[in-house]
Amino acid sequence: MSRLERHPESALKLFAEMSDREHAIFEAGICLASILHQLIGLPVKADEEFLENLVEVAQRSFSLQPFRADVRIKILKDRLKISKSYGYGVISPESLDVRVEVRYGEARAVGRLRYVDELDYPLMYVEEVNP
User: Quick check: is 11 in a domain?
Assistant: First the structure.
């Protein structure tokens, strides 16, 4: 987790007056959007070791962003469309299941990104927030 508890005073003047809770939710949204837009289209193969290594690197990388307490990324192998001719496919919104935990000051927010079949959409939402 980042050593920063809050943005430095010089950065806070760029934000509207926000509570720790609002900052935590905002940061969770930023993290989810970054993950979605960075990983979509990335070439992959449906090999367990390859996917585990990719997930580990991605989780470590996205955890570097400020206020990230935990980043969990799953690539759903059964939702990957792998070309039989070429032996690889790409990450799609349907193949991602992401959970991020952000701590900002006194607040904690958990955001989720997962494909919701009923909506036919990769939904980002706040799963939990406190205080």
Answer: no
Inside any domain, residue 3: no
C-alpha–C-alpha distance, residues 49 and 75, integer Å: 12
Q: With contact defined as beta carbons under 8 Å apart, do 128 and 102 qualify? A: no
Outline where 1-131 has alpha helix (H): 9-12, 20-39, 48-62
Cα–Cα dist 13/11, whole Å: 5
Q: Which of 53, 88, 58 is CA-nearest to residue 72?
A: 58
The pLDDT score that the predictor gives to residue 3 is 61
pLDDT at 1 over 60: no
Find the length of the chain.
131
CATH code of residue 56: 3.30.1300.20
Query: What is the domain count for the chain?
Result: 1
* pLDDT attached to residue 16: 86
Mean pLDDT of the chain: 95
